[in-house]
Design brief:
By secondary structure, the chain is an all-alpha fold. It has eight helices and no strands. The protein folds into two domains: 82 residues, Rna Polymerase Sigma Factor, Chain: A (Orthogonal Bundle), CATH 1.10.1740; 87 residues, Orthogonal Bundle (Arc Repressor Mutant, subunit A), CATH 1.10.10.10.
Length: 179
């Protein structure tokens, strides 16, 4: 077997042994299954494209894990830069929750597309404490317990802030429809 073929077999074995675990870790880190899959695939694709480096890697699974971790960090930085620039990507789950609270059919793609920009503006207009909860859950996928520990705010307070935020967002979207 050629050296290149042996390297590819080593990569393939690493993928079979570690791919699912890496994908699960990436999913927990980015909270977006498509981004997680892209991160893992990017690392393996780059490795296959540069198969000659495999011989110099002593611990291939650790090297791959580090590559996925670095790719996830790049995704976080990209999302943070977009937020700083004023761009707001609203997750499908959040959009559906707000649409349902406003009385819209969450499955209506036309309304979803039209409301996305309006919802971003409405999120920006929320009081900071409510906006922080919504953004932490939307952008970071943070759970209430995590936010409670991080911010030192009781769990029920955070849940109330989100509930109030969703009501305000729903009211803003109802106002958009009435206009």
């Amino acid at each position: 077997m050629s050296p290149e073929r042996e390297r590819k077999k080593r990569i393939e074995a690493a993928y079979r042994e570690n791919g699912n675990r890496l994908l699960e870790r990436a999913r927990r880190a980015v909270r977006n299954p498509a981004d997680a899959e892209d991160a893992v695939q990017d690392v393996f694709l780059r490795l296959v494209e540069n198969v000659d480096v495999v011989d110099s890697i002593l611990n291939l699974p650790a090297w791959i894990y580090r590559g996925v971790r670095n790719r996830v960090i790049d995704l976080w930085r990209h999302a943070r830069a977009k937020r700083r620039a004023g761009e707001t990507d609203v997750s499908a789950e959040t959009l559906e929750e707000v649409m349902a609270a406003a009385g819209f059919d969450p499955a209506d793609q036309f309304i979803r597309d039209e409301l996305s920009d309006e919802l971003s503006a409405a999120i920006d207009a929320l009081p900071s404490e409510q906006r922080d909860v919504i953004e932490a859950q939307v952008f970071e996928g943070a759970a209430f317990q995590e936010l409670s520990a991080r911010w030192g705010v009781p769990l029920n307070t955070l849940m109330t802030r989100k509930k109030l935020a969703v009501k305000k967002l729903a009211a803003a979207l109802r106002g958009w429809v009435e206009d």
